Amino acid sequence: MFLFYLSRTPAVFDECDIDKAARDLLLQDIRHRLMPQAVKLRADFEVSCFAYEGIEAVRRALRRGLEFSTDELPIKPRIVSDTDESELRRHMEELEDANKEVSGDDDDDEEDAGNSEEDEEADESDDEEK
């Protein structure tokens, strides 16, 4: 009946026993539901480059894809990056090892802190001897 309504005038509803308010509400609902709906498309793809150009080659490829964007069909990329946790953990451990102080550095700091009072006393005794 709804498709029939589109091809004919609202006179189709004259055959039904409905009041004007219900008829207007029904017509408004039909118009709303039969409006063209926006369709969203999604495509997932992976991009990687292990050559010398690396990230620059990936950037050029993505920018080239954006050139196909139009007003009627805009392209809005959403970038998602995955990182392997074991690889990340390994890199973090390597960085922590590289940043560790050389053994013995802590001892020097403690000795300096302890010697500062002794140094002052030694300086005072040197002054008294003079």
Spell out the blueprint of helices and strands.
Layout: H1 2-7, H2 20-33, H3 55-66, H4 85-99, H5 105-129
Describe the structure.
This protein is mostly helical and 130 residues long. Among the domains are: 32 residues; 43 residues, no CATH class. The protein is 55% helix and 0% strand. It is built from five helices and no strands. The model has no long low-confidence stretch (mean pLDDT 74).
Features:
130 residues, mainly alpha, 5 helices, 55% helix, elongated, RNA binding, ribosome binding, translation initiation factor activity, protein biosynthesis
The CA-CA distance between the termini, in Å, is 118 Å
Strand content: under 5%
**How would a textbook summarize the main sheet?**
none
Order of helices and strands: HHHHH
Taking all residues together, what is the mean pLDDT? Answer: 74
Tally the beta strands: 0
How many H/I helical runs?
5
Estimate percent helicity.
55-70%
Question: In terms of structural class, how would the helical and strand content be classed?
Answer: mainly alpha
* Poorly predicted regions: none
Shape: elongated
Oligomeric form: single chain
Radius of gyration: 39 Å
Biased composition (Acidic residues): 104-130
Pfam family, one: EIF_2_alpha
Region (Disordered): 76-130
Biased composition (Basic and acidic residues): 76-103
